[in-house]
Amino acid sequence: QVQLVESGGGLAQPGGSLRLSCAASGLPFSTYSMTWVRQAPGKGLEWVSSCNSGATNTNYVESVKGRFTISRDNAQSTLLLEMKNLNAEDTAVYYCATLGATYWGQGTQVTVSS
Q1: Residue 61 predicted with pLDDT over 90
Q2: Is 54 within 8 Å of 79 (Cβ atoms)?
Q3: Closest among 84, 55, 56 to 68, alpha carbons compared
Q4: Read out DSSP for 39-62?
Q5: Nearest-5° angle of CA 23, CA 25, CA 30?
Q6: Residue 80 backbone dihedrals phi, psi, to 5 degrees
Q7: Longest CA–CA separation in the chain, Å
Q8: Within 13 Å, how many C-alpha atoms sit on residue 32's CB side?
Q9: Which of 29, 72, 74, 95 would bridge 24 by S-S if both were Cys, CB 3.0 to 4.6 A apart?
Q10: pLDDT score of 100 more than 90
Q11: Measured at the alpha carbon of residue 101, what is the angle toward residues 96 and 106, in degrees to the nearest 5?
């Protein structure tokens, strides 16, 4: 079956960095556009970033532009999110999903706190 497994979350200090990974299996990963979505405590889902199958087209929510970078390794069926200059507002559970939300991972917690 399809599995999307996120990893790389944790505690970071303000201004720090984290790198999230999403390992995909059970689907032709290289053909799917992918997305990262997050949910902050007590808030709804927020789209963060997306990329097409070849990562030639990437998009970001305004609040993370210049700080987050989405990328993918199709040979390894892995989606990545490099996060820099983190702030408290980035605290959330981060999910990877296929664009259109057919498949979701279980999420990884990112906490930004001093």
Answers
A1: yes
A2: no
A3: 84
A4: E-TTS-EEEEEEE-TTSSSEEE-G
A5: 85
A6: -125, 155
A7: 40
A8: 25
A9: 29
A10: no
A11: 40
